[in-house]
Amino acid sequence: MSLQAVPARYRVASRAAETHDTVTLGLEPVDDPIAPHRPGQFAMLYVFGSGEVPISISGEPGGPGLVYTIRSVGAVTRALCEAGPGELIGVRGPYGTEWGVTDAAGQDLVVVAGGIGLAPLRPALLAALAARERYRRVTVLIGTRTPDDLVFAGELETWREHGADVRVTVDRAAAGWRGHVGVVTQLIDRVDVDPAATLALVCGPEVMMRLTARSLGARGVAADRIRVSLERNMRCGIAECGHCQLGPLLLCRDGPVISYRRAAALLTVKEL
Amino acid sequence: MNDAVPASALADHAFLRGMPADDVTRLARAAVAVRLPAGRRLFDEGAPASKCWLLTAGHVALDLHMPGRANLIVETLGRGDVIGFSWLSPPHEWQFGAEVVESAEAFELDGATVMVLCDRHPELGYQLALRLLAAAVQRLQATRIRLLDLYAVPSHDAGAR
Amino acid sequence: MDGPIPADGPLLMEAAALDPLLDALRGAGYRVIGPTVADRAIVLAELGSAADLPFGWGVSLEPGGYRIRRRDDSAAFGHSAGPQSWKQFLHPPREKVWSARRTAGGFEVEAADEHAPRLAFFGVRPCDLRAIEIQDQVLGRGEHAGSRYAARRAGVFIVAVNCTEPGATCFCASMSTGPQAGPGYDLALTEMAGAGTHRFLIDVGSPAGADLLAGLPVRRADDATAGSARSAVAGAADRMGRSMPADILHDLMAGSAGAARWDDVASRCLTCGNCTMACPTCFCTTVEDTTDLSGDHAERWQLWDSCFDLDFSHLHAGPVRSSPRSRYRQWLTHKLGTWHDQFGSSGCVGCGRCIVWCPVGIDLTEEVAALQAEAGQAGNSPGAAPQAQTGGEPS
């Protein structure tokens, strides 16, 4: 099977502003649709003449449409966040490894998200909630900057209704916020976890993932039952350009989802 | 409503994990089990500080009152946490306020009694001091992480280059 | 010679038959690339005739030094470690990947045409032959079987040349890539240029190679000549100026993250990236998306890139590998270590180009020896499985 050479064109079918700098786009295929994403995978999204960025799938698995949640941090992501319904976006993918949420069957599932890291986790969570009876406890811990930066804020109640224990904490409260204030690792200390029968999926800034994995480890969760989603500079997405190397790993091919057993040693080496 | 606390119950609390049994028994003399309904103000900024709480369930928010911003929450504490350091040293006044945000249960320790016990039993004082220090350090580290503003969009201005 | 080419033993050809050989390649539709003398170096260029080959030219090699010199024989292949490798033809420094144009409904994308001329590589050293095979693994096989690289590669005719005279900076023997060419050639020549004789032993490596020789003045080689050629090549293996402990390199690199040696080499390394440009296996690229002034036409180009470039590892607000130490470490530990994890072989073929073309003369065989010594002093057997360093922190 040969990797796709040029982007497949998709049309923006829907656009929803999640926060002041984050947008969720729903795309429908114009050219032949790409293979379906599995939760955790990403695609290279192309804006005409501007460039490409790697974005993880953030929408429900299944169906020809694609859903991505993009935060405006540079030229290409800004263009994506400004794209309106009807505009064409190029998509190459899906690439990378998946969360493998079904490996938590019969066990506790703990999803820990930091900031925009909730977006790559959302498809795994939705898949778990769609088959809720397969899992014991489903816990979602979300850390975000302020209450205004919370993505998918309108869905949390629906997740609770489908059987997830969802807790949100902010680094900094705004007036009127009556929820948790503090780092997301403080939430880990307060949830019930059966460390011998838990799968933890963690996504967010690298420091947050390291601290989260450490807290989970302190609760007795084994490193190979913690999965993180890593990020490095990506250009091609198809293991040909060499940019996304992290030690022995090519993150576009061996990641982005990596077992913390493999990741731990790599993340502690400065400038690896 | 406020019950005496058996040493065995106290020993289960994460804050006291590993404390020698004799010291836990002594400490139990200063403790009562309390139920804190949601909405109760545990203490207010500036009031005399004479107690601390070992939370066993629920959540308590530390807050600061600012004009125009009501009570802004600075940190939320939950099961396993110790609430209240200001009773330890002068001016023995609360630096923040605290409100029960989700109905809570705790062991309430009377500060004066604890100090008398520690004067008589320095080993208890040592054990408590170690744990209070560890809790303070943990909160300091968490605060430093929050100051890093990890979820902000990184900018090229940030950091020395 | 008429009739079928004997495929059960080496053949012999006089140097005078080089022109008919090149003609046969051109007649078969190939553009022939081979070594030539230009700009005071041996450079790869299209061969118009055998006269373009660098007869009688050799090279003097040292760390950070390359000079061509007159040989005292007329050998055409008596040189090594030129500034280029064959990768510039199979994996070009610049190529268009796709173009796109604005339309009423949005845009249309078109993959760049691949009008790959059929190339014959004439004079591929065994190290470079292995380098081609290594790049095939990275860029042309498995999921990359439909790539532009694979399309270019499919049509290439390879005439390898075994080495009888190692360059001063060569270490192919210890990397098991030479001086005898491994599989992958269509024809392999062993040059014998002495007093009054100039001929080539030929090994046929493929049916295409056998077919090419049809009608050319080649004959079965006699045992004495063949034996003499073989021992000349074997003898070269014993005269290498450098060597690498190939079997422990992966683990040595894996345990080296905190080594003090990296600071030492970083004090010399200019991070100029010459090594990555000269190295025949370095494959990293970047992409550039451009538009014309009207903004209606866009192109994506793929360009050679180097892990020494600060921008290479840019993430969020800055490079992950900011210090020269970390960038040199990345290059060497990838080439000698993690390449195994990623692609199943070493990335180094022992050609020595990085030593020659480094402006400050950094010699990776020397760096490896120093890292090995440091690991040994730290109490770690360099051949042991990766574990936490006992001495020194990861910096």
Quick structural summary:
With about 270 residues, chain A is an alpha/beta fold. Chain A has seven helices and 15 strands.
Structure report:
The complex is a heterotrimer of chains A (272), B (161) and C (395). In chain A, strands 10-9-8-7-11-12-15 form a seven-stranded mixed beta sheet, sandwiched between helices. Chain A has a six-stranded antiparallel beta sheet with strand order 4-3-6-1-2-5, with helices on one face. In chain A, strands 13-14 form a two-stranded antiparallel sheet. The two termini of chain A are 32 Å apart. The radius of gyration of chain A is 18 Å and the shape is globular. Chain A has 272 residues and is α/β, with parallel strands linked by helices. Helix content of chain A is 21%, strand content 32%. Chain A has two domains: 8-95, Translation factors (Elongation Factor Tu (Ef-tu), domain 3, Beta Barrel), CATH 2.40.30; 101-229, 3-Layer(aba) Sandwich (Rossmann fold), CATH 3.40.50. The mean pLDDT of chain A is 95. Chain B is an alpha+beta fold and 161 residues long. In chain B, helix 3 crosses helix 4. Chain B is built from four helices and seven strands; from the N terminus they run E-H-H-E-E-E-E-E-E-H-H. In chain B, strands 1, 2, 3, 4, 5, 6 and 7 form a seven-stranded antiparallel beta sheet that branches. In chain B, strand 4 (51-66) and strand 5 form a beta hairpin. Chain B has helices at 7-11, 21-28, 111-120, 122-147; strands spanning 3-4, 31-36, 41-43, 51-66, 70-77, 82-83, 97-110. Chain C has two domains: 11-93 and 114-237, no CATH class; 246-282 and 307-377, no CATH class. The relative contact order of chain C is 0.16. The radius of gyration of chain C is 23 Å and the shape is globular. Chain C has helices at residues 18-27, 87-90, 126-139, 148-154, 207-213, 223-237, 249-254, 261-266, 274-278, 324-343, 353-357, 364-377, and strands at residues 11-14, 31-38, 41-46, 57-62, 65-70, 94-103, 106-111, 119-124, 157-161, 187-194, 197-204, 218-220, 285-291, 297-304, 314-315, 318-319. The chains are: A alpha/beta (272), B alpha+beta (161), C alpha+beta (395). Chains in contact: A-B, A-C, B-C.
